[in-house]
Amino acid sequence: MEFAGAAHILIAETNPSQTTGDSPLEILHDVFGYPAFRGPQQAIVEHVTGGGDALVLMPTGGGKSLCYQIPAIARQRAGYGFTLVISPLIALMHDQVGALHEAGVSAAFLNSTLTSEEASDVERRLMRGEITLLYAAPERVTSLRFLALLDSIHERGQLSLFAIDEAHCVSQWGHDFRPEYRGLTVLHERFASVPRIALTATADDLTRADILERLQLQEAQAFVSSFDRPNIRYTIVEKRESTQQLLRFIQREHAGDAGIVYCQSRRKVEDIAQTLVEAGIDALPYHAGLDSKLRQRHQDRFLREEGVVMVATIAFGMGIDKPDVRFVAHLDMPKNIEGYYQETGRAGRDGLPAYAWMGYGLQDVVNQRRMIDESPAAEEFKQGLRGKLDALLGLAEATDCRRVRLLAYFGEQLGDGQPKYSCKNCDNCLNPPDIWDGTDAARKLLSTIYRVQQTSGMHFGAGHLMDIVRGKVTEKVTQYDHTSLSTFGIGADFSEIQLRGVLRQLIALGAVAVDAQAFNTLHLTDKSRAVLRGEVAVQLRESVSTPAERKSRSKSGAGPGAIKAPIALDGAALERYAALKAWRAEVAREHNLPAYVIFHDATLAAIAKRAPQSLEDLQGISGMGTKKLEAYADAVLKVMMQGE
Ligand code: ADP
Ligand code: ZN
Known about the structure:
With 644 residues, this protein is an alpha/beta fold. Helix content is 47%, strand content 12%.
């Protein structure tokens, strides 16, 4: 490895300003058509191109791919041979390789979807040095046959780099553990001189430490990016009729947009998908219970067509690099902040405005707590899970900046820790909620639980207890003679919504336990006393409908189905944009690739705005690399002319 790195640096030093365009920045311009590196990309690319090992922690959508693709191209041009990319995502390799072909990079994949002739053909091309990036799944890479092939290529000095994507799969702490990843240590044992770069969007310390140890990357340089995704607007609303809230959110804010809706159960996925379809939204279900062919077809439609909404369990999403997912909605609360962040991170990879919306309610808190309690895991492990759930509950109940809390969870501080920091792009910062002190209401609820239990020896559920506090004479109240309780009606001035909020917080705080085995009845806990004594303040957000529910944003009067551009375009430009999109759809179909692989929306919008008349006019548009210019300039100019 030292030798390879040193040799390369030598080349770079003796030809400091070669005109061959082989520097990382030139490759970024020429091949990918991007004007500048993002965040730490440049440092990573230079380190790896020079032969160093690297661990890259970057949020989803941060731009990890270029971190190994550019070194792969640079090192290939410098004579080091090919880069092996290890990825667990067989279903996406075809499109990943297709995207590289579109950019004029020689790439291929080896996986079980190829016939044996096709696979042999790839191997032959590899031996001949015709491939720059080869994608393969870990089980293929660690097979004896493939290792022998690598041996012979390595002997000729043509094995340039290992890129281990989704590296958290090696860790049991990550959420996508793949035992095959453990076998990847063979790479560094067998090919110690070949540099390695491991990449992941999972940032917690436990997983990170595990990756370093399991892949023996202790000596590698770690590059940790900011995990902030400023273009994503975080919003967490209180659930009322959550399906209707979701419908309104999609119809008002995201008509015609591609998005993902996460639900906890397969059954709910099916139900919600159907409801959305009935409301005229192009929605599809996705969960592990569907036939694998159907699942693949739905994934393809989501990737290839525009404006498809995927309703899914968390089985969906890893490696989905569709850049124009405009929203990610959670109808059920995820298990922890890692999961939430990974899932919401799938929105807005293109850097354009995107939305992360979550509906959250009492039932979510109850369900998540119950799942932990009922799991067969060891108590210590359960404690860990509870801690993680509490952090998420804290986020959901927060009355201050959501982004500050999210990033704090990943050990990052926004705005120098100033108390009133505003990110200007989360619900709490955009519309600071009114806060009310729920301590009194909390004590009234707790005393009611206590009294009821004391007088009748029975436990009751949330609805009944709230009725007692509010002094509502229901059948059940009469039946149990609960009007005679000293706490009957002590909270008559609170609304049911307010009490619900208080109860949610009490459960979140652990001051009330829910017994799932006994009809979700409520019980006091060790922690109840502190609240009863007024030692713990219960701060709540005033329950108001969110602005998203109150008023429609109705972008430039566009109704459902109308064309929306990612940047402001006047009428004529908008028409050009629509024409370009139609043209792109045709090309994508011909090439059997998703449209965004041909050009991102942002690139088409930039073209539409500029209204190019010549090849020169097209140069310098972000996303327009040399190969794409060559392949598509004529067609694009023709589309421009037709519009005149
Ligand atoms: P990740 O793998 O980290 O989730 P990707 O590598 O898929 O992210 O990149 C996300 C999106 O950002 C892609 O569409 C990619 O083309 C784009 N991108 C990455 N780096 C840059 C850059 N320097 N300039 C412009 N766009 C970029
Ligand atoms: Zn904020």
